[in-house]
Amino acid sequence: MANIMIRQKPAGGLVFYLPKRDMEADIRSIEFDTPEKWGGELKLENGGVYFVDPIPRPERLPVSVNAKRLVAAED
Amino acid sequence: MAVLTREETDALIAEVLEIYPEKAHKDRKKHLMVNDKTLESSKKCITSNRKSLPGVMTMRGCAYAGSKGVVWGPIKDMVSVSHGPIGCGQYARAGRRNYYVGTTGVDVFCEMNFTSDFQEKDVVFGGDKKLTKLLGEVEQLFPLNKGLSVQSECPIGLIGDDIEAVSKRVAEEIGKPVVPVRCEGFRGVSQSLGHHIANDSVRDWILSNRDGQPFEKTPYDVAILGDYNIGGDAWASRILLEEMGLRVVGQWSGDGTLAEMENTPNVKLNLLHCYRSMNYISRHMEEKYGIPWLEYNFFGPTKIKESLRKIASFFDDKIKEGAERVIEKYTPMMDAVIAKYKPRLQGKKVMLYVGGLRPRHVVGAYEDLGMEVVGTGYEFAHNDDYDRTIKEMGDATLIYDDVTGYEFERFVETMKPDLIGSGIKEKYVFHKLGVPFRQLHSWDYSGPYHGTDGFAIFARDMDLTLNNPCWSKLTAPWLKPQEEPMQEAA
């Protein structure tokens, strides 16, 4: 489990940020994106896939959540 | 136009790396790249933020340097105690030229060295008692301090002293914040982790101190983050921001105070100059207080104009007009600087090797003067810094991460730049090689270089260094080509 931050990009779309590794990557897709259920599998542009326990959609971004790495980002 | 083509640069890297044993060769190869502007991410081309190779000359510092020297040190009304042996504090004392206003030793303490001077017996029996006593003495001798921070040096982590407990106890006694910072030098691979640790300790111990307290806000409040006021840089930046109608609430941390930091959660926008050392706290404030942050660059007219407009875009028309007014006011001055120095500097090649932001930030200023940056590199950058660098640099320029002394010298020998910008550790090596050199950490005891006022000084200094007549006098008389044939003497 790693503590990650999800930010809103000014241009639209979400950015994934892993402070421990200074990894910043655009989020290609998010599994659940409804007001009641938000999160699930996050597919990143660098090939990484992370899982975030679904929560109600946060009122304001950025938000820090715990994420589980499913597929490591390619080096 | 780069000096070397892509193939030539590749060949140069291969040639320089030849001398290393196989394992070192493989490792160092990952840290060197030829710039390709089309790349989106630097990740595939350059590896950064990795442990330096044993046996090479690296120019990196340690986590303590990143925390005490960079982030905590310049906060002027706090006493930063170097907890551990005396050397770390003494050799880092006042070395970065973080200018400030105040009376040193009375209400400001940046240039002083407070240390617990660890001895053998402290390592054996623990230093907590000594620290308690020291903090008490500091409070008694310098009652106008606004807070204390304990910057641990290596032995503290090794022997496992509980500086947090001491700090909490003393903080209760004296009624001021006492911040324990676990920035032991052995942590991480460079000073970069020290910045991170320092940011985290600010977040945990300082930032929320005044939450809920009344603060007179205006819609135009901003804070300058990551400007350490080297040679007065932050002041030169502040002039521009205030002239365009913004109110600068805090300076982090050059010429900054504890109160400024505690009030920063009230601002509308965080302006981030050194991304590497302060992005952590900016991201935290964005999440907790909803304050957006913006990277800006105040080196050279092109970037200043760009940054002022970018900053103004976060505010209403009044500020946007203010930005245009400021640009209009200073354009003739900057044009005059360019008119004076560009003919003297045009076409000169520069190589850079600095710390966290200058390898990419100063490129614009050199280009404004008609100079070209042919190689650049960082001591302790991470991949996100290189992502940003790729866009700033010309195609086929050389980029080096954590360059070793040997590699840097060989690059300079082959690429023959007209000027090198790096730090004091490299300065005299290159002076002896006969290459004009300018320190870009401390501005070679000049400055400021930020802002419009700084650009005039920057241009003058580059001219002073590059066109100094001394560079033609570097060959010893007996090594000069003989003017008269030798046989006449025989």
Number of strands of chain A: 6
Instruction: Tell me the radius of gyration of chain B.
Output: 24 Å
Label the CATH architecture of chain A. Answer: Beta Barrel
Instruction: Tell how many strands the DSSP assignment of chain B holds.
Output: 14
CATH architecture of the largest domain in chain B: 3-Layer(aba) Sandwich
**How are the strands of the biggest sheet of chain A laid out side by side?**
1-2-3-4-5-6
Q: Which fold name corresponds to the CATH topology of chain A? A: OB fold (Dihydrolipoamide Acetyltransferase, E2P)
Largest sheet of chain A: 6 strands, antiparallel, barrel
CATH class category label of the largest domain in chain B:
Alpha Beta
Number of contiguous helices of chain B? 20
Distance between the termini of chain A: 20 Å
The CA-CA distance between the termini of chain B, in Å, is 52 Å
Question: Can you tell me the number of structural domains of chain B?
Answer: 3
Describe this structure in words.
By secondary structure, chain A is mostly beta strands. Chain A has a single domain, classed as OB fold (Dihydrolipoamide Acetyltransferase, E2P). Chain A has no helices and six strands. A six-stranded antiparallel beta barrel of chain A has the order 1-2-3-4-5-6. Chain A starts with a strand and ends with a strand. By secondary structure, chain B is α/β, with parallel strands linked by helices. Chain B folds into three domains: 160 residues, Nitrogenase molybdenum iron protein domain (Rossmann fold), CATH 3.40.50.1980; 126 residues, Rossmann fold; 106 residues, 3-Layer(aba) Sandwich (Rossmann fold), CATH 3.40.50.1980. In chain B, the strands form three sheets. Chain B has a six-stranded mixed beta sheet with strand order 1-12-11-10-13-14, with helices on both faces. In chain B, α1 packs antiparallel against α18. The longest helix of chain B is centred in the last third of the chain and has 29 residues. Chain B is globular. The N and C termini of chain B lie far apart (52 Å). The model of chain B has no long low-confidence stretch (mean pLDDT 93). Chains A and B meet through loops of A and α12 of B.
